[in-house]
Task: structure prediction
Amino acid sequence: MSQSQPPTKPINLIQKADLIDQLWSPRVVAQINDYQFKVVRIEGEFIWHSHPETDEAFLVLDGTLRIDLPDGPVYVAPGELYVVPRGVAHRTAAEGEAKLMMIEPRGILNTGHEGGERTAVNDQWI
Result:
């Protein structure tokens, strides 16, 4: 499909998230200019990290997201959006499984500058 052609149908974010077989493995579902829309399934706690170069948005599709911040946690329910400002240390977590959409610039690593075994491969589409 050429870039001048509109998509033939909308993207169902929950169905896309259900196709992901590994937790903590974000997959790109759409892109607008340099921003990517990624879906991910999470459970348990991620690592503390920050993104000095960009804000990061989380939209909860299913479950409850806990975002640990230096001043305490924020709980994000389905249908709610939370933006972590650039440079703010944070850790995402979910008591049970949660499905999220993340919005961030292309090329941003999920672990920020921390790296490590939890770093996901970028630009994997689903």
Observations:
- The longest strand covers residues 91-105.
